[in-house]
Amino acid sequence: MLISLIVPCYNEEGSLPILYEALCNVRKADDSDRSYEFIFVNDGSRDKTSQIIKELAANDKSVKYVFFSRNFGKEAAMYAGMQKAKGDYIAILDADMQDPPSLIPEMIKSLDSDECDIVAARRVTRKGEPKIRSFFARCFYKLINRMCDVEIADGARDFRLMRREVVDAILSVNERQRFSKGIFAWVGFRTKWIEHENVERVAGETKWSFWKLFKYAIDGIVAFTTAPLRIATYLGFFFAFAGFAYMLYYFIRAIIGQFWTNANIMGYPSLLCFILFIGGLILMALGLIGEYIGRIYIEAKARPIYITSEESKD
Ligand code: UDP
Ligand code: MG
């Protein structure tokens, strides 16, 4: 039985040696006849990550690697790793030790006992993270779960151990704009959650700026639900109805109009506000439609999810 551990790496020269040691400890501690393979996906790092991975591969046969020709993002790196993985159980974990490798034996046990098909980690605290980031993250999960059919767990990390069938299902979802948190939930299967405290990264710094996360959130919503498109429809109905009511009101007023003789002069500011407001809503609706059309365009081009520059032999 083979266990594949996939590690997406982007500028992780500081953390890789520490992570590798931790992975070796997991392997050493396992006294069954299981074997392990470590798959490092170098996502176009600009530091010494690639040299370090090659050195590891030269000294350890179970180290495999894929190098990307440029930075394609963690989603692409996870996809490449899963394509390369040959294991019966497959895990994905971050290079920075924020996904504690010490949880892996426990995860393996859960799969062995056949109580589930996926064991996923969820952090229950967001200690050490900026407060506004946690706040927006919470809002995002509330919003997306209200709009989508699939349940995306708050605090769920990409860290998980999966059976072969689950990974095959994930690979069969070959859309280009990947939102893995959604895809993991979408493919289904029995999931067991293990909870852990937030761990700070051992070296280097996070690659996620606030804006990157914001865009990622929008990607997630657009990728998993068309509900926002309905906003335009609802608003349209609402304003058409309001307009009609307003028309009726003026019609009746015109018939018994003698009471408001100077009413025609007023109303310039309200008119302007209304035009601006409606104009804004129309633009917003157009923008929303544009988001979806843009995505159709990118999917229609069907470019590969990543380009490899170098790969270890099997
Ligand atoms: N990562 C990647 N490509 C990227 C950004 C990140 O492969 O473009 C990897 C990174 O090396 C790490 C994991 O994804 O192993 C998580 O990244 P990070 O720690 O920056 O994210 P955070 O833990 O802050 O969410
Ligand atoms: Mg991290």
Relevant terms:
314 residues; alpha/beta; 8-stranded mixed beta sheet; 10 helices; 8 strands; 16% strand; binds uridine-5'-diphosphate; binds magnesium ion
Write out the distinct hetero groups bound to the structure. uridine-5'-diphosphate, magnesium ion
Poorly predicted parts: none
Strands, count: 8
Structural class of the secondary elements? Answer: alpha/beta
Overall mean pLDDT: 86
Please give the structural blueprint.
Layout lengths: L1 E8 L6 H14 L5 E8 L6 H11 L3 E6 L5 H11 L4 E4 L11 H9 L5 E6 L7 H17 L8 E8 H9 L7 H7 L4 E6 L13 H15 L2 H29 L12 H34 L6 E4 L3
Parallel strand pairs: 1-2, 1-4, 2-3, 5-7
Antiparallel strand pairs: 3-8, 4-6, 5-6
